[in-house]
C-alpha cells in the first residue's frame, strides 16, 4: 500500500478538494437533526406555522447543499481513482515489456492479465471508497457522538452498547473474510489460465473430443472461485441486516427511554428525535468504516500483487559500461559487419541446477549461413535466444563485430537483428500492418519485395483485398505455413545485419522451402544468417553446420564434411534422405 502513495500524489488536488467538500457535507448532515428538533420543539409543539416554513426552507437548502457536495465528492474521487488506475496500467505494461524470458517464467501470462485488470480494479474501487468514506465516516461518528451528548447525557449508555456490538461484528467479519481475499485473486489467476489454455488449444480439444474434460476442469476452478466468493459475500452481505437490526433495536430503545424522559419533562420531543438521528449517524459511520475494513485488506492483496510486478528487476537490462553505437542510416539497413562469435559460452535457465549449453564456441561470418541441427532438446533454440539477450549467458561471452553483447544497448542490439521464432506470431490488423511492424516507414516496394522473397505473394494475391486483408488475433485466420512466410517476410522488411531463423521453415512444403531459401540467399547475401532446422534439406547448402547434442557441439563443418566426420549428423541425414539424395 505504501508504494501506492506515489501514484496518488499527482492527483492530490482532487483528493484535497474532495476532503474539503466532505467536511462541508458532514457539517450539513450533522445540522439536519438540529433543524428537525427546532421544527418540532418551536414550530409543531407551539403551532407556529411561519417558523415551520422558515426552518423547513433552511433545512431543504442544507439538504440540497449536502447532496451537491456528495455529487462533487463522487466526481473528484472517481477522477482521482481512474487516473491512478490508468497510471498503474501504463507502468505495468511498460514494465512487462522490459521483462526477459526469465521474468515470464516467474509470472504466468494469466497472472499478469489478472494483475493488470482485476487487481487494479480493486485498487481503483478502494481509492473511490476511501476518499468518500475515510474522512466522512469518522467526522460523522465523532460529530454525531458530541451532538447526541449535547441533547442528552443520560442516554449515552445506549451509544456505548451500540458501539461495543458494532466493534464485535466488525472483528468477526474481519477475521473470517480477510484470509480468503488472497485465495480469491489466486483463483482468478487459475481461472484465466484455464480459459486461455482452452481457447488457444480449441482445435486440439475438438480433435481429441475432450470437451467434457475441459468443461469439468473449468467447472472445478469456477466452482471453487464461486464458493470462495460466496463465502466472502455472505459475510459482507450479513453486515447490512445485522446493522439494520441493531439500528432498529437502538431506535426502539431510544424511543422507550426517551419517552420516559419526555413524560417526566427531562427532554423535549424534538431533542429525542434528534438524538435518535445522531445515534443512527453513529451506527452508519461504523457501517461505512466496517466496509473499509473489508475493502482495505482485499485491495492490499491486489496492491501487493501489482507492486510485485512493478518491483521485479529485469534479469536482462542495459549495463553501465555501454558502447555508444554508430549513427545508423534512416532506412535501417546495415552493410558489412555482423560477425557473431560464441566464446566458450555456457547457459542454464534461472533456478536450474544443470547447464543446457556447455562450452559453445564458433564464429558466424557475414555473407554466410550458419545452421544448427540436433535432436529435440539439444539446445538449438536456447542457443539462438542468447543472441537477442532473451536470456543472458551464465558463462563465456558472445560478441558481435568484436563487441560483447552486454556493451550494446538492448535497443541497438535488437535493431541489428531480424528474428523469426519457432511459432510465427502475427498481430490483429492487416497483412500490410504485420509486415510493416518491423519498419513502420517501409515503402510499398519493400513490403512487396519481402513478401515475394518469402513466397507469400501467391496466397496474398488470391485474397480480394491483397495486402489489406484482415489478420485475426494471433493469425488465427491463416494457415501455419502462411503464418511462417509472413513472419519471414516481416524480418526481411527490416533488412537487418543478422538474421535468426529458429526452425522457421518447418511448416513449409519442400518446394516452397527450396524456392524460399534460394530467394533468401540473394536477399541476405551480405548478412549473417543463423538457421535452426530439423530438415537436412534445409541446411545442406549452409557454409557452416553445427551439430548439437545435449547442449554440446559434436561437429562443425559443411554438409559433406559432416557426413564423413560426424556420426550424429550422418544418422540424422540418413533418417531423412537416401544416400543418393545426400550426395
Structure description:
The protein has about 575 residues and is of the alpha/beta class. The protein folds into four domains: about 170 residues, ABC transporter type 1, transmembrane domain (ABC transporter transmembrane region fold), CATH 1.20.1560; about 110 residues; about 170 residues, P-loop containing nucleotide triphosphate hydrolases (Rossmann fold, 3-Layer(aba) Sandwich); about 80 residues, P-loop containing nucleotide triphosphate hydrolases (Rossmann fold, 3-Layer(aba) Sandwich). It has 21 helices and twelve strands. The strands form three sheets. It has a six-stranded mixed sheet. α2 packs parallel to α6, α5 packs antiparallel against α10 and α14 packs across α16. The longest helix is centred in the middle third of the chain and has 53 residues. The relative contact order is 0.08.
Distance between the termini: 69 Å
Please state the overall shape, judged from the principal axes of the Cα atoms.
elongated
Question: How many separate structural domains?
Answer: 4
What is the CATH third-level topology name of the largest domain? Rossmann fold
User: In the CATH hierarchy, what is the architecture of the largest domain at level 2?
Assistant: 3-Layer(aba) Sandwich
Low-confidence stretches: 327-335
> Mind telling me the CATH class of the largest domain?
Alpha Beta
Percentage of residues assigned to helices: 55-70%
Question: Major β-sheet, in short?
Answer: 6 strands, mixed
In brief, what are we looking at here?
With about 575 residues, the protein is an alpha/beta fold. It is built from 21 helices and twelve strands.
Amino acid at each position: 500500500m505504501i508504494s501506492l502513495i506515489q501514484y496518488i500524489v499527482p492527483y492530490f488536488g482532487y483528493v484535497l478538494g474532495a476532503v474539503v467538500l466532505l467536511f462541508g457535507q458532514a457539517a450539513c448532515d450533522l445540522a439536519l437533526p438540529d433543524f428537525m428538533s427546532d421544527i418540532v420543539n418551536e414550530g409543531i409543539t407551539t403551532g407556529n406555522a411561519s417558523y415551520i416554513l422558515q426552518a423547513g426552507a433552511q433545512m431543504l437548502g442544507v439538504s440540497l447543499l449536502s447532496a451537491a457536495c456528495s455529487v462533487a465528492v463522487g466526481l473528484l474521487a472517481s477522477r482521482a481513482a481512474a487516473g491512478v488506475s490508468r497510471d498503474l496500467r501504463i507502468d505495468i505494461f511498460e514494465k512487462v515489456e522490459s521483462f526477459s524470458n526469465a521474468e515470464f517464467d516467474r509470472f504466468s501470462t494469466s497472472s499478469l492479465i489478472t494483475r493488470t485488470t482485476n487487481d487494479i480494479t480493486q485498487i481503483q474501487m478502494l481509492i473511490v471508497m476511501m476518499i468518500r468514506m475515510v474522512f466522512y465516516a469518522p467526522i460523522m461518528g465523532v460529530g454525531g457522538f458530541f451532538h447526541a451528548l449535547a441533547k442528552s447525557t443520560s442516554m449515552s449508555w445506549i451509544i456505548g452498547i451500540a458501539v461495543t456490538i458494532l466493534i464485535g461484528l466488525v472483528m468477526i467479519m474481519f477475521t473470517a473474510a480477510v484470509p480468503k481475499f488472497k485465495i480469491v485473486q489466486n483463483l482468478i489467476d487459475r481461472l484465466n489460465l484455464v480459459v486461455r489454455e482452452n481457447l488457444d488449444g480449441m482445435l486440439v480439444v475438438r480433435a481429441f473430443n475432450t470437451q467434457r474434460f475441459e468443461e469439468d476442469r473449468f467447472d472445478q476452478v469456477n466452482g471453487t472461485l464461486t464458493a470462495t466468493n460466496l463465502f466472502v459475500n455472505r459475510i459482507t452481505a450479513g453486515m447490512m441486516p445485522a446493522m439494520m437490526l441493531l439500528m432498529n433495536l437502538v431506535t426502539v430503545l431510544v424511543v422507550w427511554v426517551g419517552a420516559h424522559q419526555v413524560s417526566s419533562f427531562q427532554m423535549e420531543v424534538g431533542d429525542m428525535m434528534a438524538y435518535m438521528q445522531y445515534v443512527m449517524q453513529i451506527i452508519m459511520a461504523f457501517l461505512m468504516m466496517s466496509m473499509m475494513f473489508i475493502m482495505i485488506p482485499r485491495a492490499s492483496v491486489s496492491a501487493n500483487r501489482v507492486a510485485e510486478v512493478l518491483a521485479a528487476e529485469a534479469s536482462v537490462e542495459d549495463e553501465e559500461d555501454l558502447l555508444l553505437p554508430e549513427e545508423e542510416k534512416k532506412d535501417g539497413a546495415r552493410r558489412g559487419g555482423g560477425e557473431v562469435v560464441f566464446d566458450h559460452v555456457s547457459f542454464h535457465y534461472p533456478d536450474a541446477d544443470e547447464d543446457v549449453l556447455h562450452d559453445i564456441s564458433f564464429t558466424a561470418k557475414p555473407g554466410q549461413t550458419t545452421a544448427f541441427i540436433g535432436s529435440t532438446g539439444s539446445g538449438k533454440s536456447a542457443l539462438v535466444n542468447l543472441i537477442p539477450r532473451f536470456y543472458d549467458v551464465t558463462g563465456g561471452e558472445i560478441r558481435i563485430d568484436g563487441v560483447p553483447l552486454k556493451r550494446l544497448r538492448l535497443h541497438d542490439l535488437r535493431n541489428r537483428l531480424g528474428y523469426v521464432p519457432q511459432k510465427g506470431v502475427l498481430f490483429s490488423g492487416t497483412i500490410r500492418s504485420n509486415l510493416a511492424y518491423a519498419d513502420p516507414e517501409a515503402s510499398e516496394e519493400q513490403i512487396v519485395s519481402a513478401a515475394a522473397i518469402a513466397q507469400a505473394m501467391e496466397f496474398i494475391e488470391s485474397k480480394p483485398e491483397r495486402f489489406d486483408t484482415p489478420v485475426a488475433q494471433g493469425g488465427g485466420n491463416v494457415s501455419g505455413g502462411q503464418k511462417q512466410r509472413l513472419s519471414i517476410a516481416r524480418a526481411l522488411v527490416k533488412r537487418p545485419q543478422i538474421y535468426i531463423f529458429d526452425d522457421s521453415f518447418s511448416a513449409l512444403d519442400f518446394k516452397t522451402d527450396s524456392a524460399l531459401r534460394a530467394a533468401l540467399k540473394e536477399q541476405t547475401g551480405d548478412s549473417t544468417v543463423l538457421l535452426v532446422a530439423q530438415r537436412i534439406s534445409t541446411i545442406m547448402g549452409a557454409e557452416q553446420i553445427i551439430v548439437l547434442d545435449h547442449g554440446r557441439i559434436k561437429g562443425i563443418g559443411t554438409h559433406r564434411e559432416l557426413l564423413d566426420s560426424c556420426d550424429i549428423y550422418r544418422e540424422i541425414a540418413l533418417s531423412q534422405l537416401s544416400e543418393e539424395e545426400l550426395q
